[in-house]
Design brief:
Elements (H helix, E strand, L loop, with lengths): L7 H11 L6 H26 L2 H8 L3 H7 L3 H26 L5 H16 L2 H13 L4 H28 L7 H21 L6 H19 L16
Helix pairs in contact: 2-3, 2-5, 2-7, 5-6, 5-8, 6-9, 6-10, 8-9, 9-10
């Protein structure tokens, strides 16, 4: 009795079953985010000069070759860390603002202010901001990146304010300046306190944003708190 040899098709199927192949894109993306989180902690805790790619690789559980395959040098890794943080913060703030998009200006502005102030209070955001300030002279592109990040926030808020002016609920002559004013009122003091190492509580954020929205709407709303129309509504 002779044994049958497995067909070439069966062999090929068996080889495909055990071959690891390339990891899924989601797995690759998750691995890169993990590397950037580890690198962020390294840069924030040690500064750019003392940060070590070898230590980042060891802490992330990958090889230096893996990191350099994606980021050719430490400068590129630093820029990637900054870009990843900027994107994540922007997404969080825009999601919060979008969730309140159908509400009254008070609700939308409160959501926007709370989200951005909360992010400024986190150790990760304030740590990377310190890094930006410390290294901006050596790496001008960091300063440019920071300005671009903040411009995205101001632009998103300015677009909303412009819509409200067109709808007649707000009267703002310069919506770009107003969006900058709102941001500084909402997170300026919180950022300064965190930079000085002070603790900022959730209650601090809630009260700061409440006062910010109150002052802002008293200055730009077309109705007073009693609902009485008080001025023009078209942005000039």
């Amino acid at each position: 009795m002779t044994s049958r040899r497995p067909s070439r098709t069966a062999k090929a199927q068996g080889q495909r079953a055990v071959s690891p192949g390339r990891p899924p894109k989601t797995e690759v993306a998750g691995r890169l985010q993990h590397i950037l989180r580890v690198a962020s902690a390294e840069f924030v805790n040690r500064g750019y000069a003392d940060a070590s790619v070898s230590r980042i690789a060891a802490d992330a559980g990958v090889s230096k070759k893996t990191i350099y395959a994606r980021y050719p040098n430490k400068d590129a890794l630093l820029m990637a860390v900054a870009g990843e943080l900027a994107t994540s913060v922007y997404d969080v703030v825009m999601t919060a603002m979008g969730g309140a998009a159908d509400g009254e200006p008070e609700e939308v502005l409160t959501a926007f202010g709370t989200a951005i102030a909360t992010n400024w209070a986190t150790p990760e955001t304030i740590g990377v901001y310190r890094l930006f300030v410390a290294e901006a002279v050596r790496f001008p592109q960091l300063g440019s990146m920071y300005r671009e990040i903040m411009a995205r926030f101001r632009s998103a808020l300015a677009d909303y304010l412009r819509e409200q002016c067109d709808a007649g609920t707000l009267h703002i002559v310069d919506v770009d300046a107003a969006s900058h004013q709102f941001g500084m009122l909402a997170y300026g003091d919180i950022r300064e306190r965190r930079l000085l190492g002070e603790t900022v509580t959730e209650d601090d954020i809630v009260e700061t944003v409440r006062q910010t929205v109150d002052v802002f709407l008293r200055g730009y709303s077309t109705t007073d708190p009693a609902g009485v129309h008080v001025g023009p509504s078209i942005a000039e």
